[in-house]
Amino acid sequence: MERISWTLFLLSLTYLEGSSQDFGQTQFICTSVPKDMDLCAATMQNSGPAEDLKTTVMQLRETVLQQKETIMNQKETIRELTSKLSRCESQGVLEPVAGGRKKEPGKNTMGDVSRGPTDTLAQLGQTLATLKQRLENLE
């Protein structure tokens, strides 16, 4: 009885092997599918290169919109910084910092801080010119 079972099993495997289709080389394709979508419909929908191109175009449009939004945010930040810099320039000499400590004249503690009001104005002018140039480059 056991021998007949094995014979039937081997015959069925041989039959299945002979009747299976030979597709040649195969490849796996990974596609994201929404949870509520039918998998069969999704594979039919994304079957051609035209659909892949449409998907790519949609992704590129999304990227462009995100970049435009980022640029608009950066422009707004640049405008705010430019107005703050203009206010600083219009004040001319910086007011003393509250805290009771006086700065020793001629002492350069930061290494890059200018020593006199004319140097400070020149440095602020350079900074403003650089900011304006960056703004123009972004536009």
Automatic annotation (TrEMBL):
Residues 1-20 form the signal peptide. Keywords: Coiled coil, Signal. Residues 50-91 form a coiled coil. Residues 92-119 are annotated as: Disordered. This is Neuronal pentraxin-1-like. The lineage of its organism: Eukaryota, Metazoa, Chordata, Craniata, Vertebrata.
